[in-house]
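The instructor's notes for this session suggest beginning with a concrete chain rather than abstract definitions. Hand out the sequence below and ask the class to guess, before any prediction is shown, which regions might be ordered.
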Amino acid sequence: MGHQVQTPHGLAVGSLLLQRLTDHLKRIQRRGQR
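After discussion, reveal the predicted structure:
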C-alpha cells in the first residue's frame, strides 16, 4: 500500500471486510463443532 488516506469511506470498507471475515470464521467454527 502506498499513501494512507484516513477517510470515512476507507473505515467503512475496513469494517465491512472485518465483518465478513468474522462471519466466515463463525461459520467455520459451527461446522467444526458439528
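Then share the key points. Helices lie at 8-33. The chain has a mean pLDDT of 83.
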